[in-house]
Design brief:
Arc Repressor Mutant, subunit A; two-stranded antiparallel sheet; 11 strands; DNA binding; D-Maltodextrin-Binding Protein, domain 2; seven-stranded mixed beta sheet; transcription; alpha/beta; 3 domains
Length: 291
């Protein structure tokens, strides 16, 4: 069955006259009769009762008439949506991120104002899972926090964030004027697992190579937001990227002798030529003053 069969059927159903329907369709009557006959044969039902003077819809034809209108409407809507998607005005953008989405909110707000018909889907994934999702075309763009070595993926560094101590607001360290890494020697650390955040894990462990003590890691979680929640409930302290906004009851403190930074980057497939993605990137760099 082709769209022309449905359009021919609808025209004949509206006119209930082969001559007028053929004229409206700008075709001869015999081809119209042939197309209707092919449609009925394919469907296995008679759609019209015909006499020399009269044409009327059968009960089956009346049922198909409603469905046919829906099909044409859906096809036309699909064409409109496709044209809008080709200009980046309508569609869906799937964004992967690790850590906190807080930094993305201003960009997403501006993007939604400019492209209100583009839906945004946010997926919290570790950097390795974002790379996997990009390669499998399950996300359009990722906010990654580790080097990405994949020839199919374009990586654009966007900012560097420092590691800061996250402690409960009533913790004794919260009242110290300055905090040094030695002040954390007897603290219980909460951190992300190596499988969930390998680059963060390795960066964290590297900090303690030359300080004379190993961190006392008591709890590990699969994401940094859970780490923050555990610290907020007095389960320990953490060293987290400064881009992670502390929860209520937490404070963020600079550790004076830690200068380590983690570079956050945007990552997307090189073969993704979507106008929706291109518009998001343009707006992101425009809003964040990043070339």
């Amino acid at each position: 069955m082709e769209l022309r069969h449905i359009r021919y059927f609808l025209t004949l159903a509206e006119e209930l006259n082969f001559s007028r329907a053929a004229e409206k369709l700008h075709i001869a009557q015999p081809p119209l009769s042939k197309q209707i006959r092919e449609l009925e044969e394919e469907m296995g039902v008679r759609l019209f009762n015909r006499t020399k003077r009269h044409v009327e819809l059968t009960n089956a034809g009346k049922v198909f008439l409603n469905k046919a209108y829906q099909i044409i409407d859906q096809v036309e809507q699909a064409c409109i949506s496709t044209r809008l998607t080709s200009t980046g005005s309508e569609g869906e953008l799937i964004i992967g991120f690790s850590g906190s989405v807080q930094d993305l909110i201003p960009t997403i707000r501006n993007y939604r104002e400019r492209y209100p018909k583009v839906g945004i889907v946010l997926q919290q994934l570790s950097t390795p899972l974002q790379v996997k999702a990009l390669n499998e075309k399950r996300i359009d763009i990722g906010i990654v926090a580790a080097p990405v070595n994949c020839k199919k993926i374009h990586v654009k560094p966007v900012r560097k964030v420092s590691l800061k101590a996250i402690i409960p607001e009533k913790h004794p360290l919260a009242f110290k004027q300055s905090i040094y890494i030695r002040d954390l020697e007897n603290e219980s650390f909460i951190m992300a697992t190596k499988s969930a955040a390998p680059f963060y894990y390795e960066t964290f462990m590297d900090l303690f190579q030359n300080v004379g003590f190993a961190p006392k890691i008591t709890i590990q979680a699969n994401d940094l937001q859970t780490v923050s929640a555990l610290v907020a409930n007095g389960m320990g302290v953490a060293l987290l990227p400064s881009s992670i906004n502390p929860l209520s009851g937490l404070i963020q403190r600079k550790v004076e002798d830690i200068n380590t930074t983690i570079e956050a980057s945007l990552a997307w497939r090189k073969d993704n030529n979507s106008e929706i993605l291109e518009n998001f990137l343009k707006l992101y760099f425009e809003f964040n003053n990043n070339d």
